[in-house]
Amino acid sequence: MPAKIIDGKAVALEIREEVKLQVGELRQRKISPCLAVILVGANPASKSYIRSKIRACAETGIKSIKIDVASDANEQDLLDEIDKLNRDTHVHGILVQLPLPHHMNEERVTQRIDPAKDVDGFHPENVGKLSVGIDCLAPCTPSGIPELITRSGISMSGKHAVIVGRSNIVGKPMMNILMQKGEKANCTVTCCHSGTDHLANHTRQADILIAAIGVPKFVTSGMVKDGATVIDVGINRVDDLEHSLGYRLVGDVDFDDVKEVAGAITPVPGGVGPMTVAMLMKNTVQAARMIHHL
Ligand code: GUN
To answer: Measured in angstroms, how far is the CA atom of residue 240 from the centroid of ligand 1?
Structure first.
């Protein structure tokens, strides 16, 4: 039987409705949650992500500020913008869209953001808190995955989750999130990466397989156990002259092949992507609540 298609758009909408209610509660306390997003340069994919983040803010009642920094600006200009936002008491969340131009150091930039406003959860203070289980702002993409799975009626506790990819944005925080106690985690976790020998031997053990590699259609049916839940984090642009945009989006999973063996699978687009934006809204509200000691 082909896999159940996990509907990321529907689950993201559910979360955004919950965020809307929380925004209303904050407004009653005269707190207006506000997210500042910084775009350096004009990378088309980054511009598109920022547009959807700003649209989601408008739809959930979160105020947004967009700051454009020229691609040839120096790193100090960007750090100065971050300092201003750190000081601005009306701003609760700060996000610098990655990747940055090569002449800017992502580590220095990420570490400049006040950890209390770090809605991406990339600051080492938040990374550390996540790893020891202290309440914190956690990265949006991996945070959305347990929500997506459990809200689709699939249990996670006790399952073997195999992650493919060890990035700071997805793979590493995903390990910490899945290992936590609680119904939306409590997994046995394996993390594979480009240095893993006999990769398919590991992925075939997965009850939950999370692909975050950045290679189009990398995961094929031979790498997946019958009935597994397959979560595709990849968003790869591949040339397609038949498409009006000249490209189409493809995940890290060969969807048509894997859906024949998986029990459940996320599509691209419409799976993990919308969840990342919804979790960013959730983190912005969480930051506003924490800053105001609620
Ligand atoms: N670029 C790709 N994913 C992300 C993300 O989650 N946050 C930021 N700031 N940049 C990204």
So the answer is: 25
**Of 269, 261, 229, 216, nearest in space to 245 by CA:** 269
CA nearest to 284, candidates 34, 10, 60:
34
8 Å CB contact between 291 and 116: yes
Strand pairing report for 93-96 and 4-5: unpaired
What is the maximum span of the chain, computed from C-alpha positions, in angstroms?
56
% the chain with pLDDT above 70: 100
Question: Is the C-beta atom of 169 inside 6 A of ligand 1?
Answer: yes
Domain ranges of the chain: 30-114, 140-272
Residue 83 annotated among the catalytic residues of the structure? no
Average pLDDT rounded to a whole number, residues 117-138: 98
pLDDT above 90 (res 1): no
- CATH of the structural domain 30-114, one choice from 3.40.50.2300, 3.40.50.10860, 3.90.79.10, 1.10.510.10: 3.40.50.10860
Q: What is the pTM of this model?
A: 0.97
Q: Which two tokens stand for residue 192?
A: 């594979």
Tell the CATH superfamily of the 140-272 domain: NAD(P)-binding Rossmann-like Domain (3.40.50.720)
Active site residue 97: yes
- The one-letter amino acid code at 193 reads H
Please work out whether the CB of residue 140 comes within 6 Å of at least one atom of ligand 1: yes
- What pLDDT, in 10s, does the model give residues 204-244? 999 999 999 999 999 999 999 999 999 999 999 999 999 99
275 pocket-lining for ligand 1 (C-beta < 6 Å): no
